[in-house]
What does this fold into?
Amino acid sequence: MSHQRLRLGVNIDHVATVRNARGADYPSPLRAAKLAAAAGADGITAHLREDRRHIRDADIAALVRESALPLNFEMAATAEMTKLAVEARPHAACIVPEKREELTTEGGLDAARLSDRLKPIVQALGAAGCRVSLFIEPDLAQLKAAVALGAPVVELHTGRYCETEGAAQAAELARIREAAAAGAALGLEMHAGHGLSFATVQPIAAIPEFAELNIGHFLIGEAIFMGLGPAIQEMRRLMDEARGDAA
Ligand code: PXP
It folds into this structure.
């Protein structure tokens, strides 16, 4: 194989959503992380939101302590989250927008406009040993802003591609392809995610610059019907097939 295998990060936020809906202590995000590891996932992603609507602080501590897979900690660009990340020292930290005013028009972090706020956060996370990524739109200005901030990784937002159909979807896919190539040429490690499903993953997985996809909501939903392990295995199979990698 001439290239590295595309990594699959499994976002387990919505295991916690189901748990919190009843105020119970199950289903357990940590158990989901262990199952994901057994099913062939390469990493776990969890978003500690400011309102703690799904993942909680204790989940992050348990994942860092007990999950065998590297944790990608999704966080808002706030002092509170930066402090928590620096203390927990997850493998990776991905800065995402949580408020309307932090978004570009389509939905990613407006890294270009927020660069003064982001700079010290990217530096603090990097100094703590976290691989820092920014969740941005497939847009050249955002890619250049990430480079200027010293973020080694960006994750391109695939939400619009997943939500559209026909010509609009083809146009968005072309935009993602161009941004993946432009970002890699700028020296960024390229990731993608948001809204991906069995039906939408393959054209994204086939883009050679991507090193990692982060997928959550669809997998947790599909787990209700086919089980979490088989759902992850099928996503893995589709990704490998799109890349031309033998299983
Ligand atoms: N990547 C990022 C940066 C995210 O914030 C999320 C979750 O909101 C995902 C990927 C996964 O998206 P989904 O749950 O729609 O698969």
In short: Residues 11, 47, 74, 94, 96, 135, 155, 193-196, 214-218 surround pyridoxine-5'-phosphate (CB under 6 Å). The domain at 7-234 is CATH 3.20.20.70 (TIM Barrel). The two ends are 12 Å apart (CA to CA).
